[in-house]
Amino acid sequence: MKFLIIFFVLFKIASGASENDTEIVHVQIVSNHGVRTPLAQYPDNPNNIWSKYSRSTGQLTDVGMRQMLKSGRKLRAKYPHLSKTYDRTRAWAFSSDFDRNIQSAQLIMTGMYQPSEGYANWTDDSTLSGFMPIPIRTAPSECDTIFRRHATCARLIQLQAEAKLNNSAKENASTAFLYKMRCMSSIELTYYDLWKLGDKALVDAAHNLTVEMYITQNLPRLMEIRDDNYFVTYLYSMELAKLISGSLLNQLVTYFDRKIKATTDNEFYLYTGFEFYLGGLQRLLGTTTNFMQPDFGAQFSFELRKNSTNNYFVHTLYKNHADEEFKTVNISGCEAFCPIEKLKTLVQDKIIINFDDACKAI
Ligand SMILES: *[C@@H]1O[C@H](CO)[C@@H](O)[C@H](O)[C@H]1NC(C)=O
Ligand SMILES: *[C@@H]1O[C@H](CO)[C@@H](O)[C@H](O)[C@H]1NC(C)=O
Ligand SMILES: *[C@@H]1O[C@H](CO)[C@@H](O)[C@H](O)[C@H]1NC(C)=O
Ligand SMILES: *[C@@H]1O[C@H](CO)[C@@H](O)[C@H](O)[C@H]1NC(C)=O
Ligand SMILES: *[C@@H]1O[C@H](CO)[C@@H](O)[C@H](O)[C@H]1NC(C)=O
Ligand SMILES: *[C@@H]1O[C@H](CO)[C@@H](O)[C@H](O)[C@H]1NC(C)=O
Ligand SMILES: *[C@@H]1O[C@H](CO)[C@@H](O)[C@H](O)[C@H]1NC(C)=O
After folding, report:
1. Angle at Cα 284 formed by Cα 199 and Cα 345, nearest 5°?
2. Low-confidence ranges of the chain (pLDDT < 70)
3. Residues 287 and 330 sit within 8 Å (Cβ to Cβ)
4. 118 Cβ closer than 6 Å to some ligand 2 atom
5. Name one GO molecular function term (predicted).
6. Radius of gyration, CA atoms only, the chain
7. 208-238 pLDDT, tens per residue?
8. Full DSSP string of 110-168
C-alpha cells in the first residue's frame, strides 16, 4: 500500500500540469492568412487566373475569406469562456501590413466575436445587423515591432545568401529539373522560384480548378523543392529564424508576463502574418524537426494557464491548415504544459529585443 502511494505521488509529479487542473487566463493566436491568388502570372495558364480568381496576385480569395471566418468561429467554439462580445480592453488583433493578413485578421475577429442579438445593435440597416467592426492594429513594415521580415536587415540578407551558398549541392542536383520546368511553364524561373509551381497547385486545388498536367506529374518533386526553398530562405540557421520570428516571440513572452503581473485585462490576442512567422516559431521553439512550409490558415495557439495555487503554464497547440484541428505540441526541452519560468529560460536566447543590433552585418 505504502509502495502504491509513493508510486502515485511520483506519477502525479512526473505527469505535471494538465488541461483539467489548469484554467485558461489568456490565449495568443498566431495565424497565417487564408488561401490567396497565386503570386505570379502564368503565361500558358489554361485557367486564366485573372478571370477565374478575379483578383490580382497575392489577394485573399472568396475561399480564403470563408476559411478565415470559419477559423474565427472555431476559435470561439474552442474558447467559449472568453468574453463573447468584443471589448477593447480584452481583445486585440495585430496584423502585418499586407492586405491578405489584415483581411484575415478582420474575418477571424468577426468569427470570434460573432454578431448576436442585442450586441452591435448600432444601425437600422438590416444588412449590417449585429456586425461589429473590430480594430486591427498594423504598422508599416519598417516600423513594425512584431512582424520584422520586411524591414531592412543587412544580417538577414547576408544569412540568406550564405544559406543558399551552403545549399548549392541541392540546387545543382535540380538543374535539369529546373530547365524542364522553365520550358513547361514559360517562366524564367530560378531554383528559388520553383516553389511557385507547387504553390499554384495548392491554390488551384483549393478552388477546384484543374491543375496543369506538367505540375501534377511533377508534384512530389515540386513540393519537396518548395519546402527546401522555404527552409533555406527563412529557417536555415537558428539566427536566421530568430531574425524572422524572434521579435514576435518576444511579444508573446512579454504579454504572458503582463497578464501574470495583472497589468492587463486582455484575454485574447491575434497576430496575422505570413507562414514564415509560424515556421520561425516552430524553429525557435523546437515544436517540430520536420520543417514543411505551413499551409494556408496554419495557426499556433499559445494558452496561458494557471493552476489552483496560481502557478502559470503555457500550453502550445498547432495546426498546419485552416481545415485541421489543433494538436498539442511540446516546446523543446519542456512538458506539454510548460511552466512559465522554464519557458522564459528556454527562449531567452531566441527572442530579439534590439532588432537593429541583431541586423548589423558581420
Ligand atoms: C480531463 O477530463 C476529461 C473529462 O472529465 C477526461 O476525459 C480527460 O481524460 C481528462 N484529461 C486528463 C489529462 O486527465
Ligand atoms: C436595437 O436598437 C433598436 C433602436 O434603438 C431597438 O428598437 C431594438 O429593440 C434593439 N434591438 C435589440 C435586439 O436590442
Ligand atoms: C554555411 O556553412 C558554413 C560552413 O559549414 C557554416 O559555418 C555557416 O554557418 C553556414 N551558414 C549558414 C547561414 O548556416
Ligand atoms: C554548384 O554549381 C556552382 C556553379 O556551377 C558551383 O560553383 C558550385 O561549386 C556547385 N556546388 C556544389 C556543392 O557542387
Ligand atoms: C470543391 O469541391 C468539393 C467537393 O465537391 C466541394 O466540397 C467544395 O465546396 C468545392 N470548393 C469550391 C471552392 O468550389
Ligand atoms: C501547481 O503547479 C505547481 C508547479 O508545477 C505545483 O508545484 C503545484 O503543486 C500545483 N498545484 C496544484 C494544486 O496542483
Ligand atoms: C510532450 O510532453 C508530454 C509530457 O508533458 C509527453 O507525455 C509527450 O509524450 C510529449 N510529446 C512529444 C511528442 O514529445
Report:
1. 160
2. 1-15, 44-52, 54, 116-118
3. yes
4. yes
5. acid phosphatase activity
6. 22
7. 988 889 999 999 999 999 999 999 999 999 9
8. HHHS---TTSS---S-GGGTT------B---TTT-SS--TTS--HHHHHHHHHHHHHTH
Whole-Å CA distances, 333 to 236, 270, 350: 21, 26, 14
Q: Write phi, then psi, for 24 (nearest 5 degrees).
A: -75, 130
Residue nearest (by alpha carbon) to ligand 6 atom 9: 309
What pTM value is reported for the model?
0.93
Residue 318, beta-bridge partner list: 300, 327
To test the pocket of ligand 4, the residue of 166, 171, 172 to mutate (highest count of ligand atoms within 8 Å of its CB) is 172
Question: Which residue among 162, 235, 238, 240 is best mutated to probe the pocket of ligand 3, counting the most ligand atoms within 8 A of its Cβ?
Answer: 162
Nearest to 29 by CA among 117, 116, 94, 122: 94
| Residue 207: count of CB within 10 angstroms of its CB | 16
Q: Which atom of ligand 5 is nearest to the CA of 63?
A: 13
Q: What is the pLDDT of residue 10?
A: 44
